Amino acid sequence: MIPSPRTATHTRPAPAPHPLRFGYGTNGLTDLRLDDALALLADLGYDGVGLTLDHMHLDPLAPDLAARTGKVANRLAALGLGVTVETGARYVLDPRRKHGPSLLDPAPEDRARRVGLLTRAVQVAADLGAHAVHCFSGVTPAGTDEDTAWKRLAEALTPVLDAATRAGVPLAVEPEPGHLLATLADFHRLRRTLGDPAALGLTLDIGHCQCLEPLSPADCVRAAGPWLRHVQIEDMHRGIHEHLPFGDGEIDFPPVLEALAATGYQALTVVELPRHSHAGPHFAEQSLPFLHRAARAIPEGPEGRTP
């Protein structure tokens, strides 16, 4: 039985004996008011939240953003929740085009709208004390050659990285299946193109590793360790980009969490179930015990969990 977010006392369960910190993404709780979603996650014992800026949850385009952000910051602090800011809202900029406009669009003014959203997200993240700002490249537009797309991406991200540097908030780019930047190798191509800026980090989605990376998810974590700034987690099948509840896919999670703990990663590992929002409270309640059980299966010792 999930406690009512309006009446619970927010007594947090004892932490699991490992260094990992788990969150849940608000893009999987879009049927809840943000305040109710945050209270729910605190009641369930989550360490934090992946906050997707969207029209129903801290709308980045509505008036008085700074004041509204301040209220959310106070609420997060009162609940003891960490936060990462995510920017994957489907229709926040264009009500007709999913994830549009992108950083790769042909029209400079369209790319500028996405850049504006991301720089605004950086400021929100700074005001919230967030661990990172997440973003992705977007799909290569029809008729755009690969070299042009990569050039647009690098140019568009430059002012965002400048803003992230000034704010002291890492920008964590996510390899996304079907996008220009789809794999870890693509992330490193971008990193080299931009001259390896300190503000540029990586969002690693564990399901995406299962979906299309040549390495296993655990090996992806080990390879990505030095650049990890944000982690998303869910189950998935090989070759099928469908975010699944834990146990419905093929991933063996204890080795993944063991590898993640061994990297020294200390920010949030956020459950990413954006297509399960209709039953979001149920999946939030089920996901955290699963992750704690998987984490408890990490062997003791220098390569496993800390005693």
TrEMBL record:
<protein>
    <submittedName>
        <fullName>Xylose isomerase</fullName>
    </submittedName>
</protein>
<feature type="compositionally biased region" description="Low complexity">
    <location>
        <begin position="1"/>
        <end position="13"/>
    </location>
</feature>
<keyword id="KW-0413">Isomerase</keyword>
<feature type="region of interest" description="Disordered">
    <location>
        <begin position="1"/>
        <end position="20"/>
    </location>
</feature>
<dbReference type="InterPro" id="IPR013022">
    <property type="entry name" value="Xyl_isomerase-like_TIM-brl"/>
</dbReference>
<dbReference type="InterPro" id="IPR036237">
    <property type="entry name" value="Xyl_isomerase-like_sf"/>
</dbReference>
<dbReference type="Pfam" id="PF01261">
    <property type="entry name" value="AP_endonuc_2"/>
</dbReference>
<dbReference type="InterPro" id="IPR050312">
    <property type="entry name" value="IolE/XylAMocC-like"/>
</dbReference>
<dbReference type="GO" id="GO:0016853">
    <property type="term" value="F:isomerase activity"/>
</dbReference>
<feature type="domain" description="Xylose isomerase-like TIM barrel">
    <location>
        <begin position="38"/>
        <end position="291"/>
    </location>
</feature>
